[in-house]
Design goal:
Helices cover 51% and strands 16% of the residues. By secondary structure, the protein is α+β, with helices and mostly antiparallel strands.
Length: 437
Amino acid sequence: MSKEFNRTFVMIFSAILVFAGLLTVAPTTSSQSTGVATGPARNAAIVATTEAVLKETSQLRELSIIRPVKSGAQSRAEIERMVVKNLDEDTTPGEMHATEVLLKKFGLAPMDFNYRPFVIKLLTEQVAGYYDPKVQRFYLADWIELEGQKPVMAHELTHALQDQHFNLRRFEKWPRGDSDAELATHSLVEGDATLAMTLYMAKNPMVALAFIRSLGGDGLSSEQFKQAPRAIRESLMFPYEEGLTWATQIYRRGGWKMVSEAFTKLPQSTEQILHPDKYLSYEAPVKVDLPELRTLLGNDWKRIDYDVNGEWGLYLILDEYLNDSSESKRASAGWAGDRFELLEGTKPQQVCVAQMTVWDTENDAREFYDAYLKRTSLRYPDAQAHELTNLTAGNLGQRWQTSEGAVVLELRGKRVAILEGVPAEANLKGLRDLMWR
């Protein structure tokens, strides 16, 4: 997925979401939980509890407290302003537009989906508390009962300790064009904190019960989350769920020391998160570059995104249509590297995406090719597939003519190339040849 897509959901990479990958939250019936202290009393209680939970979390996580952590409460309106502020600071309107176009082109969101306002509502609904590295301060939602939110505090204060020891702000300005590695790093950050929170709850079972009860209380909702396109829901959960699984495996091998060392030896891809052994062997992704394709589409076309899908992104693209997680996981495993380029014309719905994927073995490439072929047939049910002609022995290729333009899928050795949305007037053969240079 694109940098902006991943960044939106990790822009407050120190936030804990109310589902936290643990359970489904009951719908809300009122905006304020009964019995929740507000104003100065609420803030005073948070400050006192922060000090106690920080001390316990520091001991549990084996990271010393370098400086106290300021804390306070925020209303839903204040959290919404924070969400909007982060979106405006971290993404341009053009980047948000590119993310929306990409989701629609891959068929991961409906054509009438309006990305930015939906994301603001979703994150405002889901954020229960967050640590802001920019001001080194922790905030807790003011509509949630405090006693049950100590696990949230343990999670957020783990982020504060991470920041004091490893400098979380260095992850804010990620280089363009490798959001898969960015998502992997945020999975380290969130997986570490979620593991610490899990161990905190195991050590404090009554607090854990209070936490679970609080998730079913007034003021908490999951309606926006339920309405989100599947790719958005699962990507929002990825750093917590897959990050927790990864961090647990690293912890079991080398304790907190090895988890802490990962902030120096960062995971390089979602493949390394999904397969911890590949992190331990540090199997680096293959760098893939794509040529400038715009000139063969026309002067009125422009490139609006250029990024890496990674194993996780390709899994999402496949399973949206295959609807068989086992098949989609098998087909996206064996990933070695990829690159996609998203191009947009001046006419409505004029969008073309080019992808080059690289696989560990020819068998892995063939498995992905077969799965993507099946996915494409399901994505465009009215389009008939035709085999490409004049292919070298051992290579495979299919072509579809859809209402959104031509689609081409081609396998050569360990690589699979994909063109999707090529307009009728474009030089399709020239585009294919250029992809393989």
